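Side project, low priority. Logging it here so it doesn't get lost.
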Amino acid sequence: MKAFMVESYGGEASVQAGEVPDPRVGVDDVLIRIHAASVNPLDLMIRNGKLKTILPYRVPFILGNDLAGVVVEVGAAVTRFAVGDEVYARPGKDRIGTFAELIAVHQDDVAIKPATLTMEEAASLPLVALTSWQVLVERAQLQPGQKILIHAGSGGLGTIAIQLAKHLGATVATTTSTANIDLVKTLGADVVIDYKKQAFETVLHDYDVVLDSLGGETLTKSFQVLKPGGKVISVAGPPDAAVGKELGSNLIIQLVVSALSFQTRRRARSHGVSYSFLFMKASGNQLRELTPLIDAGKIRPVVDTVFPFRETRQALAYVEAGRAKAGKVVVTMT
């Protein structure tokens, strides 16, 4: 099959197209012919070697972290799916590789595709929808009437997190550029901060939760907008020891990872709030929770651009250069 592989950790040139053997299908696996896959910042971080400490992939490996497609074979123990099913998934962290024609995925990580979506729309969702669910529902336990700040509201994660937070009954603030103010309002944002004109930390106060997808100075300033006991949950800041433990890293790696976030956690405590890092997990069950919300129109995908499969490297470069105006970038195989 055709696939785009990371030949060595590095920049754009490290990803090359090539022919690789078709995946082997385990007893609990479904073999999926991929119709579309989307590009995530995670792909760039993996390609560039920024996550080698906690995700030590051995090169060469196929890149790509979410997909939509059709089941073409099932393992002997598979009970949830049959050949011909249209599905979507975020493969487990040890089995990435969606920039390819085929992939074998454990049945627990797969769900039936929302009936109302195209393959391209469905492929844009798994990673960001699961991240939104795990931040808002699992980690933050967001309640009706609470206030949440979601940074980068027009991004792939932000567009979905805003909609889920509104469904959960929260008051939602977000940051975005002038060009995307109307978009984030249509997604449900109650308070919109134009980051080119306003400093969010001087406008927002007494928030319960911040979802940080930017890290750096934005993360540091986010502590100021929370009420005592509030939570900053980041997917872009320094990881903490809990992440190393969740990923099965040894004790030394856990200590090294924990040290990376020491200053951030100490700064959070000085504000009377908490900081944690979330590395999202694959979950077919959570996708099945999300699917009815998608089919009911409570959550709708936002797709910026669709590239043909042969231009996967260009799609990665497009995302890396920050050229996406809103939502996700997708590659289509058909």
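Brief comment: The mean pLDDT is 95.
Revisit when time allows.
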